[in-house]
Amino acid sequence: MFLNRKNKKTNALEPEKAEDKSINLPELSLNPDAFKLKKSPREMSTYSLAFMGDAVYEALARSYIVANSQSTVGRLHLDKLEIVNASAQFRAAKVIFDYLTEDERQIFLRGRNAHNAHIPKNKSAEEYRYATALEALFGYLYLSGKTDRLYILFDIIMRDINERKDNKKENE
Description:
59% of the residues lie in helices and 0% in strands. It is mainly α. It has one domain (42-171): Ribonuclease III domain (Ribonuclease iii, N-terminal Endonuclease Domain, Chain A), CATH 1.10.1520.10. Helix 1 crosses helix 2 (73-83) and helix 3 crosses helix 5. The chain is globular and about 60 Å long.
């Protein structure tokens, strides 16, 4: 398309006609039943809930950052790291704990009590357990379809993070 541009005589005021290069894609063969849960989120393993919750929490953090920032990709990544790491998730778990329903607390405590085979060297076991608890809770809420509750809890977390940032700026 670009290589032949010099050879064509075109009028700058007329839009260039696109060449029709249709691609024959195979029919969608994905079975929607593949995404139906085989058991209720309450019956799932803590690790499955935390696995899903890790992705949900990061997606919420990224969405929040993109919606509230006009930064470079590098700055966006650094902002995400302030929210999505074991230490920050440990603080977040402590912040939301008093807001949890009894059902949510049960899931949270299951996540906190899960035995993790691998704990990063630069994090304490307590931080890592609380981060896992937070992820298990977010996975449970997401898989249960309780997205409104996810947004409420994430909002509480972000208010706390932003308040800490503001306090830090005032003390500098």
